[in-house]
Amino acid sequence: MALVMENTKILEFLELVGRLKHIKRTGWVICDIDECESIAGHMYRMGIMTFLLTEENNPTKLDRFRCLQIALVHDLAECIVGDLTPHCGVSPDEKHRREDEAMKKIAELTGIAGDRMYDLYKEYENQSSPEAKFAKDLDRYDMILQAFEYEKRENSPKKLEEFFKATEGKFDHPFIQQLVTELYRQREEFEKKSLLLNGNI
């Protein structure tokens, strides 16, 4: 009987996680981006980016597996509360309260594994480790990379400039800083080509 109850809770947990595959990221919805990414899509690419850490670009020896774990749980609460942004009219304190409450509910469904996920979530929220800080860099970088992809798809240079302004100067890890520099270079080239094609130069 206890095993049945435990498995029932795990299934409930997995169904909650499954919601993230379908919840669109609020920032893109507000900007009227068609077919925009889901929360799960955002976390997946963050997770994949942790594999790019190597001996050469990881001089401080970040724990790659821990970075991956943090990336996969950092927005997990949004399966219950949704993707809350400053545009939603919810104060930062209230946002954190709702997300913390959601994470506690999620943790209760999965026992020891849930406790681990909750601890990783708090580590990220408090930015209390080098791995949490790296995950924050990944979060911001994935956002501006996604913004650039939408600008290219819609042939609308600088349309999503607000996302770049919001993250400017906030990247800490040297490897991510290099990727940001390359992204800015490509974005500038894209803008120049678009201006040429439209006869504005």
Proportion in helices:
55-70%
- Name the overall outline: globular
What is the strand tally?
Answer: 0
Please report which band the strand proportion falls in: under 5%, 5-15%, 15-25%, 25-35%, 35-45% or over 45%. under 5%
Compute the CA-based radius of gyration: 19 Å
* Poorly predicted tracts of residues: none
- Mind summarizing the main beta sheet? none
Number of helices: 10
Question: What is the string of SSEs from the N terminus onward?
Answer: HHHHHHHHHH
Assign the structural class, choosing from mainly alpha, mainly beta, alpha/beta, alpha+beta, or little secondary structure: mainly alpha
First and last CA, distance? 73 Å
Mean pLDDT: 93
Protein name: 5'-deoxynucleotidase HDDC2
Organism: Parnassius mnemosyne (clouded apollo)
EC number: 3.1.3.89
Family: Belongs to the HDDC2 family.
What would you say this structure looks like, in words?
The protein has 201 residues and is mainly α. It contains 10 helices and no strands. Helix 4 (64-73) crosses helix 8, helix 7 packs across helix 8 (130-153) and helix 8 runs parallel beside helix 10. The model has no long low-confidence stretch (mean pLDDT 93).
Give a summary of the structure in a few sentences.
One of its GO terms (cellular component) is cytoplasm. The chain has 201 residues and is mostly helical. It contains ten helices and no strands.
